[in-house]
Amino acid sequence: MLGHNKKIPRAVIVDLDGTLLHREPAHFQVKGKSGSTYLSKKSAELLFAISRITPLVIATGRNALSVEKLTEQIDEISFLGFILENGFVVRELLKNDKQIEAKWCSILELIPDWEPLPGYENCLGLIPPQKMSKPKEYIQKLLKTTGEKGYVWSEHRKIFIYPQSPDKTIGLSSLNVFPFIALGDEINDTQLLSMSSYPVTLQDSCKQIQAIVQKKKGYCSMLSSHLATEDMLAWALSKLQQNTK
């Protein structure tokens, strides 16, 4: 079903942090707990051009509340759907009024000095106390002690507890987007780019991702930050235009 490079892509799936969004200031600002990230105006224009040809899907570790901070600024761009929380939430629309799942409340009661991150539905996002040196290991031991099931993921100073190992492809079947172009840069994009017929990354991505893209004869931009994003999106747009001629 996958890997047939001659087939016309049915969607373009894009990661956010490190792929579309960067720390260097640009036209669109997305504020978060650990600072702001940005999307360039040129990248938004390319996303709009892509959306006129084929559906766009955002696949990210962020939750609906966080992603909406971006999409409300680029509301002329339509998205087929959103793969959120590293694959554990799939939505057509971003509006979210759900609370943290009850299964995580017992963990929260044991760590009252940790700050829970708002807006997550199927995982628990946390900011550990400032002076804690090994927060990931602490949470792993806590899960083992309590017998709770969960996969602990660290990202900068944030800690996440997922139902199982993160995999952005979990919700792909419900979107019916095979074959697809995928843009990603980190280890949590591994399965997504492995399943993509047209994987795309940038030179600053992790080595494992670069190896996948190289093996599948995808595209790796030799640029960085916003210039790399614009280059990757331009490549994806060109591929789509070739297939529609």
Account of the 3D structure:
This protein is an alpha/beta fold and 245 residues long. The chain has two domains: 11-95 and 167-243, 3-Layer(aba) Sandwich (Rossmann fold); 102-162, Hypothetical Protein Ta0175, Chain: A, domain 2 (Alpha-Beta Complex). The chain has seven helices and 13 strands. The protein has helices at 41-51, 64-71, 102-110, 135-146, 190-195, 207-215, 225-243, and strands at residues 11-14, 28-32, 35-39, 56-59, 81-84, 89-91, 115-116, 124-127, 151-155, 158-162, 180-183, 198-202, 219-221. The protein has a seven-stranded mixed β-sheet, sandwiched between helices. It has a four-stranded antiparallel β-sheet with strand order 7-8-10-9, covered by helices on one side. Strand 4 (56-59), helix 2 (64-71) and strand 5 form a beta-alpha-beta unit. The chain is globular. The two termini are 23 Å apart. Mean pLDDT is 93; it is low at 1-5.
